[in-house]
């Protein structure tokens, strides 16, 4: 994509720590090991803007990234890691809920799930949570490269059925290895900007790894 500059703005746990901005925001959320940071880096053509970790559950803050001064991409805390306490899980839930409930310039929440597995109960609850706050709940299935082509439709159906999605609900697929889904996700972003009245549009840019 033709992005001139993407930069980290700040991390937050409380509403008063959110950056003061009127820019539209799009947030991403998913389980701790779903590959969220890697996907963000792929989309922005950066290697380490969003910090990846070998330890699931590392991201415990809301991280804000400014994209060309046009919109803010928000990385929400990962959830579902078994080795954290119930108290910590409750804290993460409060952090996410406060953001979803109070951030006025939030356009959409993108839920990432692992294509290889049926969504967990926590995934389902997160999807329902997102929808209850009035968002469309665009779902992106990660790790597409780990699925045989002949099995893709089967796995997509499992996800759709688990979430109770209808034909109008968005389910995209991605892979940070093959860069699959990069443009489709950006197309969805552009549509969100357009329908919400923002004069923001990112054009496709062919790169060596995409050709």
Give an overview of the whole structure.
The chain has 211 residues and is α/β, with parallel strands linked by helices. The chain has a single domain, classed as 3-Layer(aba) Sandwich (Rossmann fold), CATH 3.40.50. It is built from five helices and seven strands, in the order E-E-H-E-E-H-E-H-E-H-E-H. It has a seven-stranded mixed beta sheet with strand order 1-3-4-2-5-6-7, with helices on both faces. The longest helix is centred in the middle third of the chain and has 17 residues, at 86-102. The protein is globular. It starts with 5 loop residues before the first strand and ends in a 16-residue tail after the last helix. Residues 53-58 have low confidence and may be disordered.
